[in-house]
Amino acid sequence: MRHVEIRPLALERLAPLLEPERRLRLRRLIEQARTLLGGRVVWNISSTAQGGGVAEMLQTLIAYARGAGVDARWLVLRGAPDFFAITKRVHNALHGDGGDGGPLGELEHRRYQDVLDDNLIAIMNEVRAGDIVLLHDPQTAGLARGLAAAGLHVVWRSHIGRDAPNARTEEGWAFLRPYLEHANAFIFSRADYPPPWIDPRCTWIIPPSIDPFITKNVELAPEQVRDILRIAHLCQGHASAKPVQFPRRDGRCETMRHHHGLLVDNVPAPPLEARLVVQVSRWDRLKDMAGVMRAFADHIGELPDDVHLMLAGPEVSGVSDDPEGAQVLAECISAWRALPPAAHARIHLACLAMDDVDENALIVNALQRHACTVVQKSLVEGFGLTVTEAMWKARPVVASAVGGIQDQITDGENGLLVRDPADLDAFAAALRRTVDDAALAARLGGAARERVRDEFLGDRHLIQYLDLFGELLGASAAA
Ligand code: UDP
Q1: Among 92, 120, 206, 251, fewest CB within 10 Å belongs to which?
Q2: Helix crossing, 167-180 with 81-94: angle to 10°?
Q3: Has residue 117 been placed in a domain?
Q4: Same domain, 148 and 285
Q5: Domain check: are 236 and 111 in the same one?
């Protein structure tokens, strides 16, 4: 178990983006949070501090909570690969997917509980009765009993789920049920996700949010975007790129390093003037990077010659709680190597270095901004922060109508949805619409940014948290 240090950020910096009434609500939130939470600590426990949406969101929510005077802290579990193989199995199961096909039986329960019991011993030295603890995702559910017994208010938050349950989802929930019965409240990203045995009166629906000011989302001038991509060797360019400075989470300013070899097989990068279709995802089968590649390759003749595809994901050793990454990447690479030359030359696989998360975020930011269209062809998706990030950058997004993506995109208004994520022809047709029709792309992108401003910024998220904490503490005081 380890602490993640988070520098406070003033929530007030969101104010210029908000209309007056919402600004007022934000200021009221700050006062209420201090009064309600007093000396309590709000703990967050997750399984990784980098890579993936949960880590991304905790970074800023905790920073804003601290900036508002709340003592919010973040602990990361310790676990061996066999523990993460089990939790990934549960993760896949909750998405309705067979994953590695392994069992979720007695042995797995024992191993899961052992690892969490070890973590619990360390956590107990830190926490006090009366504190609030937010446990994130299946990796942490087994801590609920011990923490509740120690007098903490335990909230379990699931960042995943599946629209329509199947046998595998039931299996995943059955695994978690004995642990979750000890939690006092639950948070899900969508109303469709909770299993029926979770009491709706203890259930809160809170969709995620993004922060416009972090390195991942901060405004970048087109010239800076091009410099970043050239320095990362993700784009070719004639002129040499100027050095790029970027802000770190801790406030320091850094100069971006040159990267070589981020593109698989060191193939030539796409030309700077090429129009780039981009998907940024972990190498997870459910993100269907391979499906994007197939759809693009099968329809390459219908796409203008200057349109290229880039599939970008983390360097696979960089995401500790995702043991399947290497295998999924290997599958993508062999499918890509087998493509006909014309398709192979216009499709690029990139593994972004994870040794510096701020620099990784800068590169993702530049890729999303450079993209003519951002795609997210997930087969299942809890929420899909990559969609929110691209929408904030006013990109036209083409995405599968699954999970939380449907809560973000209204088809034809602020993005394009593909009903059946397995329908490669429909996906390619939607992609072509954004590529062929610049006016449509601009209209979708503009509306997308407004949608994120209205619904998916941190003030809404923290107000919902505060409502939940108010009820939780009120209920326990009444009891
Ligand atoms: N991400 C990243 N670098 C990468 C790949 C992904 O920073 O190489 C980020 C991405 O920008 C997003 C998060 O990881 O913020 C993924 O969140 P999402 O909700 O889309 O999916 P998850 O990985 O949580 O299933």
Answers
A1: 251
A2: 120
A3: yes
A4: no
A5: no
Report whether residue 207 contacts ligand 1, using a CB cutoff of 6 Å: no
Answer whether residue 216 is part of any domain: no
- Phi and psi at 87, nearest 5°, equal -70, -30
Rounded to whole angstroms, the Cα distance separating 233 from 7 reads 32
- Here the CATH number for the domain that contains residue 313 is 3.40.50.2000
For Cα atoms 11, 16, 17, give the angle at the middle one, nearest 5 degrees.
90
Distance 389 CA to ligand 1 centre (A): 10
For residues 418 and 412, what is the distance between their CA atoms, to the nearest angstrom?
11
The protein residue whose alpha carbon is closest to atom 17 in ligand 1 is: 53
Name the domain count of the chain.
Answer: 2
For ligand 1, atom 11, which residue shows the shortest CA distance? 386
Question: How confident is the prediction along the chain (479 residues), in pLDDT tens digits per residue?
Answer: 899 999 999 999 999 999 999 999 999 998 999 999 988 999 999 999 887 789 989 999 999 999 999 999 999 999 999 999 999 999 999 999 888 889 999 999 999 999 999 999 999 999 999 999 999 999 999 999 999 999 999 999 999 999 899 999 999 999 999 999 999 999 999 999 999 999 999 999 999 999 999 999 999 999 999 999 999 999 997 667 789 999 888 789 999 999 989 999 999 999 999 999 999 999 999 999 999 999 999 999 999 999 999 999 999 886 666 778 999 999 999 999 999 999 999 999 999 999 998 999 999 999 999 999 999 999 999 999 999 999 999 999 999 999 999 999 999 999 999 999 999 999 999 999 999 999 999 999 999 999 999 999 999 999 999 999 999 998 777 77
**Boundaries of domain holding 232:** 222-455
In a domain, 217, yes or no: no
The closest residue, in CA terms, to atom 3 on ligand 1 is 314
The answer to whether the CB of 408 falls within 8 A of the CB of 186 is: no
Q: How far apart are CA 156 and CA 14, in angstroms?
A: 27
In a domain? residue 214: no
